[in-house]
Amino acid sequence: MGNRKRQTAEAIKAAKKETAFAKLNNCPTSPRKMRLVADQIRGQEVAKALALLKFSQKEAARRLEKLLLSAIANWQAKNESADVEKSALFVKEIRVDGGTMLKRLRTAPQGRAHRIRKRSNHVTLVLGANNIES
């Protein structure tokens, strides 16, 4: 590996250590349904995002609520002295990518078969903090 490539890789690794994030892999919900809920909480403060997810009727909201709580716990582990309320945490970035697809066959009339695609997704949630000194 070249020197410049190694330096950029180390810089990226150091930046990742400072950011608090949580990942959910192979979630058995279609990416389209998950993005509907993810778009609602993108850029929101953590308390407001948790309230939106808690009172949402969608099944994907339960999974995202658990993921957000995990990201908050990861942030607290990295910043032990800081307080969650004073730091004004917000959802900095949330990405929903397509995951693996289970392909099944469903019987159809006249001896035919239709393909059923059971989709899954990967969600990455990154938190940001606005440090408010009081």
Whole-number count of domains: 1
Mean pLDDT: 92
CATH architecture: Alpha-Beta Complex
Give a quick account of the main beta sheet: strands, pairing sense, barrel closure: 3 strands, antiparallel
CATH T-level fold name:
Ribosomal Protein L22, Chain A
**CATH homologous superfamily identity:** Ribosomal protein L22/L17
List keywords for this structure.
three-stranded antiparallel sheet, 134 residues, Ribosomal Protein L22, Chain A, alpha+beta, flat
Description:
It is a single chain. This protein has 134 residues and is of the alpha+beta class. The chain has one domain: Ribosomal protein L22/L17 (Ribosomal Protein L22, Chain A, Alpha-Beta Complex), CATH 3.90.470. The chain contains five helices and three strands, in the order H-E-H-H-H-H-E-E. It has helices spanning 3-18, 31-41, 46-54, 59-78, 84-87; strands spanning 20-27, 89-107, 113-129. Strands 1-3-2 form a three-stranded antiparallel β-sheet, sandwiched between helices. Strand 2 (89-107) and strand 3 form a beta hairpin. The longest helix has 20 residues, at 59-78. The radius of gyration is 19 Å and the shape is flat. The protein starts with a helix and ends in a 5-residue tail after the last strand. The mean pLDDT is 92.
